[in-house]
């Protein structure tokens, strides 16, 4: 079987980390047919569209995409490509597992938590306008439908993977109606999953709780903005943004991408760590049913980190993007041990 996958290399470090990941994926065994598509400023330069219709058509056809980061202009310019794609394809669940890799020394060994971020509304609805000069209104949209959908995703995942508990993260003490509705949907859903202990933490307290004791968390469900911020915070537990994968999941299709952005400070230098996109690709392999390939790729990544000789600079190593990919491919080729099935949080 040949898996047809839309490839969105993105910009900045995107093409570097995505190309490295494609090389590794092709060494895992399954066959792929890549449909490469431009997005963002590069797409506009060629097609006068930030998201060309061919990209939409490709995802509609393949229903699965591997995506690199796309730069979003700050305080003006075009709307975020990422947010637009998530809304367009109703990729309502942003799934971000945070787990230490062997060999990476951090202040927080043994973290294993999952952030489930609502991906289609909240402050990222993009509904903003200037009321009068000097006054801007930005609407935060919270709906019962989307809040219940994400809560069910979080609890369903927790049940399936035998996770220990679910925390809802909110600011319903201040945003009584919007976060209040989100919380009510989480509470109602928790009743359907009585075996899973359910807790609620206010988002500012959550930040303090996380940096003092991240081990108290397991599955964390939250609306869009909190999920965006908490994901980057949690990336710090396991060694940084170069390591943390993500999946944007909907009922019809899925787009797999790292938590990190286009990293303009290191773009084009061959220095970026491709692990986060590689780990996202591991999630993609599981999603398309290639469990053995996913286990093999994940084990090879872990092997390279355990060995510690071929890691990138962001985690204290010396090699570049491409050499890291070579090391992962090498680990897959030389590994003779059977690969143990691992938990689906990577
Ligand atoms: P960023 O994640 O691109 O970079 C933050 C820091 O982490 C930088 O120092 C960077 O060098 C480092 N870093 C990130 N990924 C790395 C990797 N793979 N290897 C080694 N170091 C890495 O965040 P920033 O600078 O805030 O955003 C840059 C652009 O990316 C913005 O335009 C933003 O909107 C966009 N962005 C896009 C996302 C996406 O396409 N999904 C997600 C987040 C941001």
Question: What is this structure's SSE topology?
Answer:
Blueprint: E1 2-8, H1 14-26, E2 31-36, H2 41-47, H3 53-62, E3 64-67, H4 81-88, E4 93-99, E5 112-118, E6 122-132, E7 135-141, H5 144-160, E8 166-170, H6 178-192, E9 198-202, H7 203-212, E10 219-222, H8 224-238, E11 247-249, E12 254-257, H9 275-287, H10 291-307, H11 321-334
Parallel strand pairs: 1-2, 1-3, 3-12, 5-10, 8-9, 8-10
Antiparallel strand pairs: 4-5, 4-11, 6-7, 11-12
Helix pairs in contact: 1-9, 1-11, 5-6, 7-8, 9-10, 10-11
This protein binds 1,4-dihydronicotinamide adenine dinucleotide (NAI).
How would you sum up this structure, described in words?
The protein has 346 residues and is an alpha/beta fold. It has 2 domains: 1-104 and 240-346, 3-Layer(aba) Sandwich (Isopropylmalate Dehydrogenase); 112-236, Isopropylmalate Dehydrogenase (3-Layer(aba) Sandwich), CATH 3.40.718.10. The chain contains 11 helices and 12 strands. The chain has helices at 14-26, 41-47, 53-62, 81-88, 144-160, 178-192, 203-212, 224-238, 275-287, 291-307, 321-334, and strands at 2-8, 31-36, 64-67, 93-99, 112-118, 122-132, 135-141, 166-170, 198-202, 219-222, 247-249, 254-257. The chain has a 10-stranded mixed sheet, with helices on both faces. Strand 8, helix 6 (178-192) and strand 9 form a beta-alpha-beta unit. Helix 1 (14-26) packs parallel to helix 11 (321-334), helix 5 (144-160) runs parallel beside helix 6 (178-192) and helix 7 (203-212) packs parallel to helix 8. It is globular and about 55 Å long. The two termini are 23 Å apart. 1,4-dihydronicotinamide adenine dinucleotide binds at residues 13, 17, 69-72, 82, 241-242, 257, 260-266, 272-273, 276, 314.
């Amino acid at each position: 079987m040949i898996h047809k996958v839309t490839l969105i290399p993105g910009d900045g470090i995107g093409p570097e980390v995505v190309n490295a990941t494609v090389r590794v994926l092709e060494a895992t065994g399954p066959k792929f047919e890549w449909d490469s598509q431009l997005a963002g400023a590069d797409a506009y330069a060629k097609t006068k569209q930030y998201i060309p219709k061919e990209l939409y058509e490709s995802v509609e056809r393949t229903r699965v995409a591997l995506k690199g980061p796309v730069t979003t202009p700050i305080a003006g310019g075009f709307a975020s490509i990422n947010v637009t794609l998530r809304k367009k394809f109703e990729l309502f669940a942003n799934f971000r597992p945070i787990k230490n890799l062997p060999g990476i020394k951090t202040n927080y060994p043994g973290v294993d938590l999952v952030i489930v971020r609502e991906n289609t509304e909240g402050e990222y609805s993009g509904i903003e306008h200037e009321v009068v000069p000097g006054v801007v209104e930005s609407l935060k949209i919270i709906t019962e439908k989307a809040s219940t959908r994400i809560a069910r995703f979080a609890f369903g995942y927790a049940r399936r993977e035998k996770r220990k508990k679910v925390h809802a993260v909110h600011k319903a003490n201040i945003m009584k109606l919007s976060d209040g509705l989100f919380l009510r949907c989480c509470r109602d859903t928790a009743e359907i999953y009585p075996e899973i202990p359910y807790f609620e933490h206010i988002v500012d307290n959550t930040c303090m709780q996380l940096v003092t004791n991240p081990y108290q968390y397991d599955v964390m469900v939250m609306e869009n903005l909190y999920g965006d911020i908490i994901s980057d915070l949690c990336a710090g537990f396991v060694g940084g943004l170069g390591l943390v994968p993500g999946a944007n999941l909907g009922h019809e299709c899925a787009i797999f991408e790292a938590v990190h952005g286009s990293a303009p400070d290191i773009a084009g230098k061959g220095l970026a760590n491709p692990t986060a996109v590689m780990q996202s690709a591991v999630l993609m392999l599981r999603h398309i049913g290639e469990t053995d390939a996913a286990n093999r790729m994940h084990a090879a990544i872990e092997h390279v980190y355990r060995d510690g000789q071929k890691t990138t600079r962001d985690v204290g190593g010396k090699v570049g993007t491409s050499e890291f990919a070579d090391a992962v491919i090498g680990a897959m080729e030389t590994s003779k041990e059977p690969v143990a099935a691992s938990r689906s949080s990577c």
